[in-house]
């Protein structure tokens, strides 16, 4: 197999030839058809997450075909198209697993972070954390659903029944969430980097009612806001744009430090919460809904060997929607 390997934090990924991996009990070997590039991959690259296993093959928005199966795998067949998300494994017996909050498992494995991911021609997955994808839609178009879509969906659920929904950072997740929110009859207010007129036009094109810079005041108060962008300074700005009782959801795995802000911004039962990872039921629910709604993703495809360029372009906001690597 071939893979783009990250040997150490803050280095470039390297193209390597590796021995073909053998699936263990309960595992699948999946031939990768497409793997999305997510902001979390930048945090892996920068060594900003505490438990990264170096050297690591990043990538956790994987669409591929089952290529080989370990003993004891049930419910899959060779050749079937599947998706592999960020949550790669849970222990099944910690208090969080037992209370159906496996997204908070004490002993998890995360694809492309603590187990090898999909910036490769082949990947090993735990079959219990692999979703059948069927044959509808292109693999490149499906890849961003596996994280941007799933985390977007979980953050939207946690935002609650908000009519006026603010989205800070209009990238892969927000462009999917906007379609779900519009389908549910909500109004979306999109916040981009100040002055990013192209990004604002993209948001309007995807169905947002209003788009402006993150430093702007929206024309109506928000019932909830979701932050996909990582500057901590956005938290008080988002709180200030909300009405009483609103919820502000931080959806990223990493944010810069939150600045201190006056208590009155949180007062009146506003809530500030974070969203961590996903559960398998999020995946099943969202993938079903995405097909029902007919979610359309905007993607830019790169060859696998151009993973570094795709990551650079993501960091600098050089494309709309999501980047996807194709082996
Ligand atoms: Zn657990
Ligand atoms: Zn991700």
Alpha carbon gyration radius? 19 Å
| Overall residue-averaged pLDDT value | 97
Order of helices and strands: EEEHEEEHEEEHHEHEHEEHEEHEHE
Number of helices: 9
Question: Percent range for helical residues?
Answer: 10-25%
State which percent range the strand residues make up: 25-35%
Look up the CATH topology of the largest domain: Quinone Oxidoreductase, Chain A, domain 1
Number of strands: 17
Low-pLDDT regions:
none
What is the first-to-last residue Cα distance? 11 Å
CATH class type of the largest domain? Alpha Beta
Task: Outline the structure in words.
- The mean pLDDT is 97.
- Strands 3, 4, 5, 8, 9, 16 and 17 form a seven-stranded mixed beta sheet that branches. A six-stranded parallel beta sheet has the order 12-11-10-13-14-15, with helices on both faces.
- The protein has helices spanning 39-45, 95-98, 139-142, 148-159, 172-183, 197-205, 234-240, 280-293, 307-315, and strands at residues 2-5, 14-17, 27-37, 62-69, 81-84, 87-89, 109-110, 122-126, 131-132, 164-168, 187-192, 210-213, 222-227, 242-250, 271-274, 299-303, 322-326.
- A hairpin with an 8-residue loop joins strand 1 (2-5) and strand 2 (14-17).
- The protein is of the alpha/beta class and 327 residues long.
- It has nine helices and 17 strands.
- The protein folds into two domains: 2-135 and 297-326, Quinone Oxidoreductase, Chain A, domain 1; 149-274, Rossmann fold (3-Layer(aba) Sandwich).
- One zinc ion binds at residues 38, 40, 60, 86, 147.
- One zinc ion binds at residues 90-91, 94, 96-97, 105-107.
């Amino acid at each position: 197999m071939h893979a783009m390997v990250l040997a150490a934090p803050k280095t470039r990924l390297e193209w390597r030839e590796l021995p073909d991996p053998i699936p263990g009990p309960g595992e699948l070997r999946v031939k990768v058809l497409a793997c999305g590039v997510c902001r979390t991959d930048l945090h892996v690259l920068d060594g900003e997450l505490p438990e990264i296993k170096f050297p690591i093959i990043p990538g956790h928005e994987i669409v591929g075909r089952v290529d080989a199966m370990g003993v004891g795998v049930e419910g899959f067949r060779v050749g079937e198209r599947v998706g592999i998300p960020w949550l790669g494994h849970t222990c099944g017996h910690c208090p969080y697993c037992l209370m159906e909050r496996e997204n908070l498992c004490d002993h998890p494995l995360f694809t492309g972070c603590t187990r090898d991911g999909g910036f490769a021609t082949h990947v090993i997955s735990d079959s219990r954390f692999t979703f059948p994808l069927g044959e509808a839609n292109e693999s490149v178009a499906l890849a961003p659903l596996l994280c941007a879509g799933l985390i977007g969906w979980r953050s939207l659920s946690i935002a609650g029944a908000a009519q006026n929904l603010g989205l800070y950072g209009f990238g892969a997740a927000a462009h999917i969430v906007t379609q779900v929110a519009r389908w549910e009859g909500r109004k979306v207010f999109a916040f981009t980097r100040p002055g990013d007129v192209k990004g604002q036009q993209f948001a309007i094109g995807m169905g947002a009612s209003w788009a402006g810079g993150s430093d702007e005041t929206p024309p109506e108060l928000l019932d909830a806001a979701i932050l996909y962008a990582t500057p901590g300074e956005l938290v008080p700005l988002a709180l200030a744009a909300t009405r009483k009782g609103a919820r502000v959801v931080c959806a990223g795995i990493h944010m810069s430090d939150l600045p201190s802000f006056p208590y009155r911004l949180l007062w009146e039962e506003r809530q500030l919460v974070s969203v961590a990872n996903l559960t398998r039921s999020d995946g099943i629910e969202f993938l079903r809904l995405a097909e029902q709604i007919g979610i359309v993703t905007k993607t830019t495809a790169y060859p696998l060997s151009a993973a570094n360029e795709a990551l650079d372009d993501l960091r600098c906001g050089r494309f709309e929607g999501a980047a996807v690597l194709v082996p």
